[in-house]
Design brief:
Length: 360
């Protein structure tokens, strides 16, 4: 039986019965039996770098939040890459960045639909684990991108840049702007967000350097990647801490809302703001003097690398082990690092001098 007809039969079964039953009923003609050589090697835990790139795969993208412009750009990058590779893309997800139950149910749905791979940005590291492990048992490859789960709950994590680079450079930028002195605060996304929490830990570590002895981190606030909540949190930070000199917002939604608040207030240009934003969101605030510098990577490339990694995994070219290498089209060759982490590259710093060269 061809894989596509097996999939239809099993999908129909899965739709009317429990997944476990469907898997039993499809026993003997599961995906395992129709694997090519590369697939067999991968099933045995070995990568076959020469295995052909499979076509006709379906990769489901599950961002942290569907209506977040950052993920719109990232997932478009994934869609384009899959089109080039002859595979299909679909996107599902919640509109709130703090709906972990919603994310879990989307993982379960994609598993029932027997997609070949899932690229997911986790709202919470642990909450998705059981569902993701169930997907992997069903031979679905799991790639996290942007925000990771626990390493045993996925095959690989596509990191936008090393957490170290992202965390330390934001502190360095703000410290320079405030002359290494004064109170600062962080405006983050959701309190459970794996990516933001990893960066915040590194920021705190960077702040231990004696050169920052006159800088005091007074608060970490959470805007949940909700524009209104982030705006109000910024307002609250300034009310509670009238001597605040600077804010780091490592989220595209947060930095935009904070810039909007500052630019319409008496603090414009006085309270410094940096963090992670998109050039299109931040251009106006760089030009009107609210923000001097901020940083980000190209989200489209992050989505593209997630898609290409998913296809390489599903083709058996890699298994997610440290040291394996693969070709990611025009992005070049990547090597899998410790714990299955793949770094996209270095973040780019945007200022008034270069912000107009970017359009995302
Ligand atoms: C927001 C999200 C995302 C993060 C970017 C920088 O869009 O929180 O997870 O990577 O900001």
């Amino acid at each position: 039986m061809r894989k596509s007809s097996i999939r239809r039969t099993c999908a129909a079964l899965a739709a009317v019965t429990s997944l476990a039953l469907a898997a039993t009923a499809c026993g003997g003609t599961t995906k395992e039996d129709v694997k090519d050589e590369g697939g067999k090697a991968a099933a045995a835990g070995k990568a076959d770098p020469n295995a052909a790139t499979k076509k006709g795969l379906t990769v489901g993208f599950l961002p942290k939040q569907v209506n977040n412009p950052y993920f719109t750009v990232a997932d478009k990058g994934g869609e384009k890459a899959l089109e080039e590779l002859g595979s299909s893309y679909k996107e599902v997800g919640t509109s709130s960045g703090t709906d972990t139950a919603g994310q879990v149910s989307y993982v379960n749905t994609l598993t029932q639909q027997q997609v070949d791979a899932i690229a997911v940005s986790a709202q919470d590291p642990g909450a998705l684990c059981t569902a993701l492990k169930q997907a992997m048992k069903n031979d679905i490859k799991i790639v996290t991108y942007d925000s990771d789960t626990n390493p045993e709950c996925r095959n690989a994590f596509i990191s936008q840049a090393s957490a170290d680079d992202i965390g330390r450079t934001q502190v360095q930028q703000l410290a320079e702007q405030i002359g290494n002195k004064g109170e600062i605060a962080i405006l983050s996304a959701a309190q459970t967000a794996t990516n933001q929490n990893a960066w915040i830990e590194i920021m705190k570590d960077e702040l231990k350097d004696p050169k920052y002895k006159d800088i005091k981190l007074v608060k970490v606030a959470y805007g949940d990647d909700d524009a209104q909540k982030s705006f109000q949190q910024t307002q609250g930070l300034l009310q509670e801490h009238p001597n605040l000199k600077g804010i780091i917002s490592p989220t595209t939604v947060g930095i935009k809302a904070a810039a909007q608040y500052l630019s319409g207030s008496k603090y414009k240009g006085k309270v410094k703001l940096t963090g992670l934003g998109t050039p299109n969101d931040m251009r106006k605030y760089v030009k009107n003097g609210t923000v001097e510098a901020f940083e980000l990577w190209d989200p489209a490339k992050l989505g593209e690398l997630a898609a290409r990694t998913a296809v390489a995994l599903a083709s058996g070219q890699i298994t997610g082990k440290e040291g394996e290498t693969f070709e990611a089209g025009a992005l070049g060759e990547y090597t899998i690092g410790k714990d299955g982490v793949i770094d996209l590259g270095k973040p780019t710093v945007f200022t008034a001098d270069n912000v107009d060269q970017y359009n995302f």
